Amino acid sequence: MKNANLTRAKNTKNDEFYTQWADIEKEVQAYIEFDPNVFKGKTILCPCDDPYESNFFRYFALQFNSFGLKKLIATCYAGSPIANTQLSLFDYEDEHNKTTKSPHKIIVNEGIDENNDGVFDLNDIISSLAKNEKNTVTRLEGDGDFMSAECTELLKEADIVITNPPFSLFREFLGWILKANKDFLIIGNINAITYKEVFPLIKDNKMWLGNGFNAGNAYFSTPFAESYGGGVYNPDTGLVKFRNCCWFTSLDHGRRHQELRLMDMADNLKFSKHKELRSKSAYDKYDNYDAIEVPFTDAIPSDFNGYMGVPISFLDKYCPEQFEIIGLTAGNIKGLAGIPSATGKDGPYINGKLKYRRVIIKKRG
Q1: Total structural domains within the chain
Q2: Which of 255, 277, 311 is the last residue of a domain?
């Protein structure tokens, strides 16, 4: 277990990306608009988040009263490079006993205007923490690893987990949440859709994509400018840009129930904005499966009621009332219920060429 913890700590450090306030606000508002009471009376846990530096903590702390939260918990793991670099949390701080070297947790139980200035803000939270009464800050005994016994006990208290977990530990983090049967709103790489632990949850409508980032672009700050994990670093802004990030959640939002506007096959072949489709006289059919290839989500035909293979990006527009998800190819759809194979050959082929990562869907009704 010690080696596993060290591996997680190393991976976490290399995945040190901090979510922007605007992205959190945009995402959370989608759930508030759908259900104004979605967070009312709930305990929110933000693991993997230094309480003073995390925008997740700051956002929900400032919205504590307006959202009607019961409790807000945030934890910090050992060795976080920006942990509490602005503020001292404890009375006794020296070179060997610093908050920056010690994992800790903050628990907010109430939002009180401590300084009586008519506004509830972070200064009020800092003042209330100094009293160490209803709102508290304490060191953790362990290293703050989300799978530690301490953090798992905190998870038991929570109703909803909200954070940006280390991408390299997404499987482990999601499994940790699901084992405790908690709701969640977390950020991950879109390729996580294809994980064997993830796709069945999406297929069974136990998990889905969130409202999404602006134009599909996610920007994160990072203390590690020399290592940006596949993103594009801008030295002028200090932000890393990712085009392959999305929100995964079990919380409902309105966009999820907006049906796609579709054209029929003939109009798609004639008017599609994709010249690759306009150049065809018909939709391609797989060589070995009774399904058609739909290369673009906006080209799903309204007048076809059979099986269709669409890109995984379709899931960003997926409406469960409009479509049924049958399965995921990921190079091998052998055994998918209801899709007969003409040859028994693994994977969907078109003119002998294998098509990877296709979500197999069917229109409802």
Answers
A1: 2
A2: 255
CA 360 from chain centre, in angstroms, equals: 23
Nearest CA to 27 out of 244, 207, 213, 240 is that of 213
In a domain, 260, yes or no: no
Predicted pLDDT of residue 81: 43
One domain for residues 271 and 132:
no
Record the pTM: 0.86
Quick one: average pLDDT of 268-294?
93
Q: What token pair was written down for 20?
A: 């922007």
Domain encompassing residue 293: 265-363
Q: Tell me, yes or no, whether 186 and 298 share the same domain.
A: no
Could you read off the pLDDT of 287-323 as tens digits, one per residue?
988 899 999 999 999 999 999 999 999 999 999 999 9
The answer to whether 187 and 19 are in contact (CB under 8 A) is yes
**Domain end position, chosen among 255, 278, 296:** 255
The torsion angles phi and psi of 314, rounded to 5 degrees, stand at -55, -35
Distance CA 162, CA 27 (A): 11
pLDDT value of residue 196: 85
Please classify residue 152 by burial: count the beta carbons closer than 10 Å to its beta carbon, then call 0-12 exposed, 13-18 middle and 19+ buried.
Answer: middle
Residues 204 and 318 reside in one and the same domain: no
Q: What is the pLDDT at residue 12?
A: 45
User: 47-99 pLDDT, tens per residue?
Assistant: 976 666 688 988 999 899 999 999 999 987 754 443 444 444 444 444 434 44
Q: For residue 115, is it within any domain?
A: yes
In Å, how far are 217, 309, 326 from 294, measured between CA atoms?
24, 6, 15
Distances (CA, A) of 143 to 2, 5, 80, 138, 147: 11, 9, 10, 13, 10
Residue 236 lies in a domain: yes
Q: Are 272 and 322 in contact (CB under 8 A)?
A: no
User: Residue 221 burial (CB < 10 Å; 0-12/13-18/19+)?
Assistant: middle
Q: Which tokens is 227 given?
A: 């290592």
Q: How far apart are CA 19 and CA 187, in angstroms?
A: 9
Question: 189 and 146, same structural domain?
Answer: yes
What's the CA gap between 279 and 29, in Å, rounded?
41
- List, for residues 91-141, the tens digit of each pLDDT value: 444 443 444 457 888 899 988 877 777 777 777 777 777 776 788 888 888
